[in-house]
Amino acid sequence: MAIDDPKDPILILASQSPRRRYLLEQAGLSFSVIPSRFDEEAVPFKPGDAPEDYVRKLAQGKALEVSARYPRSWIIGADTTVMIQGKNLGKPSSNAEAFEMLKQLSGETHEVHTGFCICSESAEKRFSQSVRTEVLFKELTHAEIDWYIKTGEPFDKAGGYGIQGVGIILVRSINGSYTNVVGLPVCEVIETLIREGIAGFCSGNGFDLNRPENVSSGAFG
Amino acid sequence: MAIDDPKDPILILASQSPRRRYLLEQAGLSFSVIPSRFDEEAVPFKPGDAPEDYVRKLAQGKALEVSARYPRSWIIGADTTVMIQGKNLGKPSSNAEAFEMLKQLSGETHEVHTGFCICSESAEKRFSQSVRTEVLFKELTHAEIDWYIKTGEPFDKAGGYGIQGVGIILVRSINGSYTNVVGLPVCEVIETLIREGIAGFCSGNGFDLNRPENVSSGAFG
Lengths: 221, 221
Known about the structure:
2 copies of one chain form a homodimer. Helix content of chain A is about 30%, strand content about 25%. In chain A, strands 1, 2, 3, 4, 5, 6 and 7 form a 7-stranded mixed β-sheet that branches. A two-stranded antiparallel ribbon of chain A has the order 8-9. In chain A, β3 and β4 (about 85-90) form a beta hairpin. In chain A, α3 (about 95-105) crosses α4. Chain A starts with 10 loop residues before the first strand and ends in a 12-residue tail after the last strand. Chain A has about 220 residues and is of the alpha+beta class. The interface of A and B includes residues 23, 27 and 170 of A.
C-alpha cells in the first residue's frame, strides 16, 4: 500500500506497533507512521481505573502529542490493555514474569481493551472510542508455556502473548472484535473515518482521504 | 518455516488454500503442501445436511485421497462452509452473486463451520473434528459492497468475503475461533497433533514431528 507524502501526510498512525500498521494496511488505507513521544509511564493504570476510560485517555494522549507536531494531518493514536479478574497485565520484562502471566491466562477468559483516538489540531476535531473483546485461552501445560516463552513473542506485548503470531495456538475462542485483540479495532476505526468524512470509498481499490481543511470544521469534541 | 523433505514429507497439508498454509506456518509447523484431488462437486451440500457433519465428511474425503498417495505421511484435510439462516453460501461466481451474498450478510450474524481431518494410512489412524464460529457483519451500504467486490476478494471464498484480507473491515465481531473463519481452527489442530503424539514441543522454536510408524498403532477410528 502506497504511503501518502511523508513530508506532509494526510493520515498518520501515531504508533510504532508493526501489528497496528499491518492492520491498517490490510484494510487498504494509505498513511505514514510517526510514533508518539507521549510518556505512558507518567499515566500508570491505577486499581479502580475503568479500563475502557484508561485506554481512551492514553490513545488521546498519544494522538494529541503527534497532532501538535503535525497540525495539518489526521492522527490515529491507540492503546491496548489486558485485564484478568480486575487486574491489569502489562508487558512482561522477564521469563518469570511471562510465565506467571501465561499461567494466569491458562484455561481462563480475559478481556482486551483497545482505545483509539482520531484527531486533527487544525480542524479542531477529536473522536475517540474504546472496544472490548473477551479471549478464552486453552489450558496450557508448563512445558507449553516454557516453549512459548522461548519463541520470544511474549516480551513486547500486553498480557505476554501475540494473537497474530505463534500465540494463535493458545487462543481457543474470542467474543468480540479480533483486530481489537491484535491492537486496533479496524472495523470501528474505518467506520469513524467514513462517518466523519475523513475517508471515502474510492473508485479503485483503497480509500480516498480528505485533508482536515476539506472536512467541515466543528467543535473539538 | 522450513518444509520437511518434500519427497517424503512427515506432514502434508492437503489444501491449496494459501490461508490455511499461512495459519499452519504462523503456528510454527513444518509441512509440505499437496492439494487433494477429491471431487467436492460430487458431494454437494443438500438442504437438511448438518453443516458440522458435512464439513467433516469433505475434510475426510480430501485427506484420505492424499493419504492413499502418501501412506507414510500424516495428512491434514479441511473444508469450510458458511451458513446463514439455514442456507449454505458457496463461492460467488459473478459480481451479482457476490453482491447478493454480501447483502444477505450485512448487519447479520452468520455461522462458519470448518471441519478438519488428520490421518495416516500406514498407521491406520484418523481423527476429525468440526468447529463453529459466529460472525457478525456491520451494516453495509450498496457503495461499500460495490467497493469491496472491486477488490476481487469475494470470488474464491465461501460466503464471498475474506476475514484475513480487506474483508476485515466488514466484520464487527466474532464468537468462537478466529482461525476457524480464516479456514482452519489452528488451536484444535495443534491440540490433536500433540494429544495423538504426532507433534511435540521441541527444545528450539517450532514442533518436533513423529512419523506414523513411530506413533503407536491403533484402530482406524
